[in-house]
Specification:
With 305 residues, the protein is an alpha+beta fold. It has 6 helices and 21 strands. It starts with a strand and ends in a 10-residue tail after the last strand.
Length: 305
């Protein structure tokens, strides 16, 4: 890692050859050629305007739901976590939140504002921007059911406002304007009770902790649930809990989680993802679709155990 000097009035932090293992929940990943933490949305726009037209861009939030390969990232990673993370109550029933705020923090913000409907966000281990990008959901709720306005930024640093109707939204899938990324969005909620909301969040987190391997390096759910079924059930019934490659293994607690037991490489994890999908297809005839996003340059490999 090496900090680089900034010019053109930029106010963020630019790091060179930054290991992505510092920024992913799996704790793996090779170096990004450049990683930029913008000071705010205005600074993000200025930074994008300074980039060459063909620069490869990667958007990183909390680094969950993401596998960065061991060869790292050629181009620039933009990290929104903890920097583009402002939330504000706009009207009695609406909240505007920026993409870098964590879903858990946003859920608590809405609860303290006396608004209900966003409690499920507390169970999503990522940023609001990541939730927007994949229509993340938990406990029966989905992100895009709450939205009334979306703000994006394009690679030229121009901001745009959109209505939800301009996007094609499905289960864990969102398609919108090309070369635009989520900067913020406005949610419409219902007036509720702060104490009831807080208790609901507490109950959801207890439910999540009881069912998932919280506290261990993972990405959350690896595969999307097939229609009418659950990926975890298919993996479990195929006898794959505990299956490992290198230091990566299928969780004994929740079969749709892959754990880094310490020292796993991204290649170990990717190989295990592929092996689980092949075994499930061979046994159940079901093609599991990855929920995790895999980016970067590959190197290395691992051995099945």
């Amino acid at each position: 890692m090496m900090a680089a000097a900034l010019d053109n009035g930029l106010r963020g932090e630019l790091l060179l050859n930054e290991s992505m293992s510092r920024h992913t929940s799996w704790r793996v990943g090779g170096p990004a050629e450049r990683l930029y933490r913008p000071a705010d949305i205005e600074d993000l726009c200025a930074f994008l305007q300074s980039l060459p037209a063909g620069e490869a861009l990667y958007w990183i939030g909390l680094g969950s739901n993401l596998l960065v390969r061991d060869g790292g990232l050629r181009g620039t990673a933009i990290m929104t976590k903890g920097v583009i993370d402002h939330a504000e109550q706009c009207t009695a029933e609406t909240i505007r939140a920026e993409a870098g705020i964590s879903c858990a923090k946003l859920a608590r913000f809405c609860s303290r504002a006396g608004l209900t409907g966003a409690e499920f966000l507390a169970g999503i281990p990522g940023t609001f921007g990541g939730a927007l990008a994949m229509n993340a959901g938990a406990f029966g709720g989905e992100t895009w059911s709450l939205l009334i306005e979306i703000e994006t930024v394009d690679r030229h640093g121009e901001l745009h406002r959109h209505s939800p109707e301009e996007f094609k939204v499905a289960y864990r899938s969102v398609e919108g304007p090309a070369d635009e990324w989520f900067a913020a969005a406005t949610l419409r909620l219902e007036v509720g009770d702060v104490e009831v909301n807080t208790q609901r969040i507490r109950e959801l987190l207890e439910q999540r902790s009881g069912a998932q391997p919280i506290g261990l390096p993972s990405c959350g759910s690896v595969f999307r649930n097939p229609e009418g079924d659950h990926a975890a059930r298919l993996i479990d019934s195929a006898g794959l809990k505990g299956l490992s490659i290198g230091a990566a293994s299928v969780s004994e607690k929740h079969a749709n989680f892959i754990i880094n037991n310490g020292g796993a490489t991204a290649a170990d994890i990717e190989s295990l993802i592929e092996l689980v999908a092949r075994r499930v297809h061979a046994i159940h005839g079901v093609e599991l679709e990855q929920e995790v996003h895999i980016i970067g340059e590959p190197t290395g490999g691992g051995d099945e155990q």
